Amino acid sequence: MSKASNDQMNRREFLKAAGSLAAAGALAAAASGFLPAGAPAAAADSANAAAGAANTAGRPNILFINTDQQQLQALSGHGNSYVRTPNMDRLLKRGTTFMLSHSAHPVCSPARAVWFTGRPTSELGLFDNNCALRYEVPNLRLWLQNHGYSEMFIGKYGITQKGMATGYPVAGAWMGEFSDDGISQTARAFLMNYTDDKPFFISLGIHNPHDCCFWVMDYPVSIKDLPYPELADELPPLPANFNFDPREPETFKKQHQGLMRLGWNKMTWRYYEWSYYRMVEMADAEIGRVLDALEQSPHRDNTVIIFTADHGDGLGRHQTYSKWFLYDEALMVPLVVSWPGHFPEDAVDDAHLVSGLDIAPTICDLAGVPPLPRQRGASLRPLLEGRQVEWRDHVVSECGEKGRMVRTRDFKFITYLGDPTEQLFDMRADPGETRNLAGEAAHAETLTRMKKYLEAYEASLEKVPAIKV
Ligand SMILES: [Ca+2]
């Protein structure tokens, strides 16, 4: 593996420089550019390479692994010592991880609809889990199928669309505890037995750590004592941003006060986070089984793996849990892309702002098929290949019909259309989003610029009404 040059950094160096993930926001200020570390992978095992190449005719297989509700920080390979994810960390070592990776809409179905269409939710009319994807919107599933790929959707898909199966070839229990094992076993069987000439696309939807939503239902009020007292020393400490901005937008404030268990005691919040990490580890084990199968299969070296999550989880930050809001804990998700011999291994990109909008364009680009009509995102391929390209200087995410987030490298703006209270955070000085700078004279120019970005975004949208399921 070659040494990183001055403007390159591998993951180990990145973590060392960052000290801890809490410092990642500040670290972003110091680092610049794309940070590939390794030389292309060592020459592939010839037998595997030959077999893989034979059945894909130069086009890679694509394995899209997605977990549900996994926060960017919930990976041991990202420096979190409260969770152990050896298999997700294998993916980090295999590829490039994007540290400025945003859910396009931190809610299950909307985030997933963006993945498979490349379009923002305002253009899909899909604002929550009770909305359907419009029949006429092209969907990556049929798109790849019609362009020569075998497609296999295994596990959670999460989108309702007329005329389209909902995507549960295996047991569709709505809990990872009961269905993730069957999901990973199905993927294993597919990988070990696939011999068709066509390349394949697999969407592997792992439910966990979404089971934390059921955990919350089990603890409507604070716990008095830990059910397992021996865990006391293992609980993560309260996060530095446990307290929250008193000037939250009214729209979110109602949600925050009504739903977020603000009455939980500190022990409950800490136990929640501990429990959440165990669910991440269950997801990690299933991913490990699939990676083992891939490595033993003829498809090992000609398979792109994209790993991400639909949205994160509050994990007690700002005294929030779950999703449906625009603080980074719900918004930022892991995103790792690997293709042995083509993309750098064990590399970190902490420079480029990316989002779920980029998933479909990237998949189409790598598959060598035309882009989906009206796609809004951009292919990550040039970044993965270390090419110098013009890249966006801000990214927008949506939340519900009115929630909007605009992020530059330095600042983040949160607003709910029509709501008088806005939020502006300095993401270098205050990565925990605790000091709302909106209204401060020193930041008036920045606020104006962020609003202009949003105005341009809104003007560009072709909005459609929702279709309720
Ligand atoms: Ca979800």
Rg result: 21 Å
CATH topology: Alkaline Phosphatase, subunit A
Largest sheet: 7 strands, mixed
Number of structurally distinct domains: 1
The CATH architecture term is: 3-Layer(aba) Sandwich
Structural class by SSE content: alpha/beta
Describe this structure in words.
This protein is of the alpha/beta class. It has one domain (11-392): Alkaline Phosphatase, subunit A, CATH 3.40.720. The protein has helices at residues 11-18, 24-30, 46-56, 86-94, 108-117, 140-146, 176-193, 212-218, 250-259, 266-296, 328-331, 359-367, 381-384, 444-460, and strands at 61-67, 96-98, 101-102, 150-155, 200-205, 303-309, 335-338, 347-349, 354-355, 395-399, 403-407, 411-416, 423-426. The chain is built from 14 helices and 13 strands. The site of calcium ion (CA) has 6 residues, from loops.
